[in-house]
Structure formats: C-alpha cells, structure tokens
Input
Amino acid sequence: MFNDIGPLELVTLIVLAVLVFGPEKLPKVIQDVTRTIRKIREFSESAKQDIRQELGPEFKDFEFEDLNPKTFIRKQLDNEDLGLKEIRNGFDLKKEMAEVADAVHGRDSGSSPASGGTADGASGGRVDMTKKPEPPARDDRPPFDADAT
Output
C-alpha cells in the first residue's frame, strides 16, 4: 500500500504526526487509523466475494486487477496467440519515417540513411527544422480558376 513512500518521507510523516497530535494522543490516533484501514480492507474483500458469487462459476478466476487498463494491455501484449510480438519486432519506425521523409522530399528511397547512403550529404538525411522553407517558384503555382472560387 505504501510502496512509494521513501524513508525520508516516512520520518517527515512521523514528525508531523507527533507535532499535530502530540505524544500523548498519538498511540490512540494510530490505533484508530489502523482499525479504520482494517475495516476498509474487510469491506472491500467482502464486496469482491459478493461480486464473484454474483458473476457465477465461469468467472471464478476473475481478478479485479485485470480491470486496470495498464494490466490489461500488458497481459494482451504478452499473449502469444495474438502474434503482436512478431508485428512489433517487424516494424522499424526509423526506416518507415525515413521512407516517408524521402517520399515527401521527392528523393529516391535507395539513398535514404536507413539503407546506408546519405540523403543530402552533410546533414546525414536529417531535416533541419530551423531553416524556413523556400517559397515556391512563380511557375509552380496551380492554375487559378475564377469560377471554382
């Protein structure tokens, strides 16, 4: 429950508890807190048991932790039946992005950095995002159709 509390944080909490409640009332407060936590755990366990009984025998192996989206996705990715590991291992994002950049810039994909060559010499196939794009030449504009607008 308190796995993410470090030793310094624990000492700080103890000092704060002594300052707020005082050394005389602190044992009584600790007992009340532990009793409340115990009651909450008992209530949640009984609620889990009631839900399992209502769901029936086909859900006897149901774990409530599976409802956490991270746990669900992790279990699905580890499932060998889906073949997701092969898909994930067969996908090279850098190569795909280099091919897209080459297609956008009108370069031959054989000269991309992923295939061993350099796309534009000194930059090594990287796009310089600090440079402003060059304005298109006057003859590169599409024809204007007054009737279409």
Observations:
- The helical segments are 7-55, 69-78, 84-89, 93-105.
- DSSP finds four helices and no strands in the chain.
